[in-house]
Amino acid sequence: MDITAPVFCGIVPPHVLDKLARSGDPVIAGPARRTLQADAAQRTGRRLTSVLGGAAPPAGPAGGLRRTLYDAGNGTALPGTKVRGEGDEPVQDATVNRAYAGLGATCELLRSAYGHHSVDGAGLPLNATVHYDEKYGNAFWNGEQMVFGDGDGEIFLDFTVAVDVIAHELAHGVTQYTANLSYFGQPGALNESMSDVIGSLVKQHTLNQSAEAADWLIGAGLLAPRVSGAALRSLKAPGTAYDDDVLGKDPQPATMDDYVRTGRDNGGVHINSGIPNHAFYLLATQLGGPAWERAGRIWFDVLTGGELPVDADFASFARLTVAAAEARFGDGAEHEAVLKAWSQVGVPTG
Asked: Which of 3, 113, 207, 291 is the most exposed place for a label (fewest CB within 10 A)?
């Protein structure tokens, strides 16, 4: 398919970085401002690529995985110096090894559960850069590769510590090559939610967890010890991931009753994603067992089925999940569970 709108997608929402940048503590504000500036430069670069057209991505090896890890050396030139290739032995840098393993874990779930090879379904080689910029507080997919910051050590730790963060960002690549959801408003929130769902599924698959046993947190372990919070987001209980004097309070709603209307954060893409996130959690726990087998299969069918419009709203997505559940599993428990989940978050499916 044509990549019509590759976008910059960071795991840390801009509204969080904005708040940190306004801190009276320069140790916190300085890295947040640098991160915002770097992110703005990346967004500009993605817009130029969208207008001018980027080079066609190279084809990957048939049925294989090709990962290449680079080190930016705390600079911003991408991709940086190659430090590990596919099949190479682990290196001394744990950050490199975690990124390498996280790319593999994501592709293993996509391949084994859904028959989808790499992010494009055709074995696209995966490039990732670690140690990006100085105290950079984000990780992102820029439309072509993964990039990880080291964090500032005060609010954020190394962005490779959580496999679901790695998977979340790679999942933006999957969306780019399939539904290519617009990155604003409800379609943007669906874009972010799909990444949270796949991120959570990869973590559960890696840990061999059932839906009931999973924590349903995105970015657990990423926040520094001084922060009052467990993670960046929670699919189980949106709005409860953190509540901190410096970081602020998690603003995600769980239902349409608390839908946030805002022009910030691309129309609240990291905020209102809590609603479809929670619907997925409700579905997965209602069905039980490994969440990637039935709930994840339904969501992935919709993402890759070719019927999801780029400007889909929550209701459009919900209706397609109902149809996908019936098409794959029949008019049984899965179908009923999907209807119930969307009803509980206030999204119509009729």
From this structure: 207
